[in-house]
Design a protein that fits this description.
Strand content: 15-25%
Strand order of the largest sheet: 2-1-13-12-11-8
Structural class: alpha+beta
Low-confidence stretches: none
Helix content: 25-40%
Mean pLDDT: 97
Shape: globular
Number of strands: 13
Largest sheet: 6 strands, antiparallel
Length: 306
């Protein structure tokens, strides 16, 4: 399964590299790439080829050990963890969210609230109003009925954020602890979830983000350790999850689709949101350009923090 993919050791800073020259890359353009990244306030930029570091560059005082926030790119960590929780029998995607948050977690009628499932939280189809004063607010008075769950796609942080509480209540385990045991320690990541206002934000080194990219490139398997056995869940996570926004999986953005939607709008745009990217690229995207791009067909993982 992981033939040809390199997995860096779980501890220490050793990580095999491969030169851009040996891959036939345009090395004469690397300096101008760094200039471009620097102009865009980049802190860290990494490209892996089949797990090995081809390019790794840090800017200003930021370095290999510096921590930075993933912002919404961290949603993909939660998506993967949800798959593990389902596999372990703690929850089912078809479960009503109320089963784990209790009734009255929204201001919807009980009938409409009950329609919202964990699957809706993963696919941004809760039907809750997204254009509220504070789209991050997870209090019931901020979670207002707009349409039946599953009938409308809208990028809405609050229902997503509540997945953490769903997993905590379903497993009976602290969210950081469960995440560390099931993902972080298994692939040698560092970092932690830190509450920020209503949000729960992941902070780590750029290399930790790259490690998660390798895990995704290899379909949830780290070397000989399968973190997620449920191949159907993994496939659903990185493919079109609903028929409203073709370019959205389970909290992952998908390139190469015929149409896409964007946060804060109900317009369906023709084409792909990443026209220059390989069609099979999947992306974890966060504000201010926190990005983890995985291109399985080319064996690439690309990390940008800044």
């Amino acid at each position: 399964k992981s033939q040809g993919i390199y997995f860096p050791p779980l501890t220490g800073n050793n990580w095999e590299s491969i030169s851009p020259d040996s891959l036939g890359w345009c090395t004469e353009n690397i300096d101008s790439l760094y200039d471009f990244l620097n102009q865009k306030n980049t802190k860290a930029f990494i490209i892996l080829k089949d797990g090995k570091i081809v390019i790794e560059h840090y800017f200003d005082s930021f370095n290999v050990d510096s921590l930075w926030y993933w912002a919404s790119a961290g949603k993909t960590l939660t998506a993967f963890l949800t798959g593990i929780a389902q596999e372990e029998g703690y929850l089912s995607l078809s479960d009503s969210t109320s089963k784990y948050l209790g009734s009255g977690w929204t201001s919807c009628s009980p009938e409409k609230e009950k329609l919202i499932t964990i699957w809706n939280q993963l696919t941004m189809t809760s039907g809750l109003k997204d254009y509220v004063a504070d789209p991050y607010c997870t209090d019931p008075e901020c979670l207002i009925y707009q349409s039946d769950a599953g009938t409308r796609w809208a990028y809405h942080n609050a229902p997503y954020t509540l997945l953490d509480e769903v997993i905590t209540n379903a497993t009976g385990q602290n969210y950081n602890n469960y995440f560390n045991n099931k993902i972080r320690s298994k692939i040698g990541m560092n970092g932690l979830w830190i509450p920020s206002g209503y949000n729960n934000v992941y902070f780590s080194t750029p290399r930790s983000m790259a490690r998660f990219g390798i895990l995704i490139q290899n379909k949830g398997i780290w070397e000989n350790d399968t973190l997620l056995h449920d191949a159907n869940y993994f496939s659903s996570m990185i493919n079109t999850s609903q028929n409203l926004n073709e370019s959205y999986g389970y909290l992952w953005w998908l390139a190469g689709k015929e149409t896409y939607m964007l946060p804060r709008t109900q317009f369906v745009f023709p084409g792909t949101w990443a026209p220059d990217a390989p069609a099979d690229m999947i992306a974890a995207l966060g504000k201010n350009g926190q990005t983890l791009n995985v291109v399985p067909s080319m064996g690439l993982v690309i990390v940008r923090m800044g």
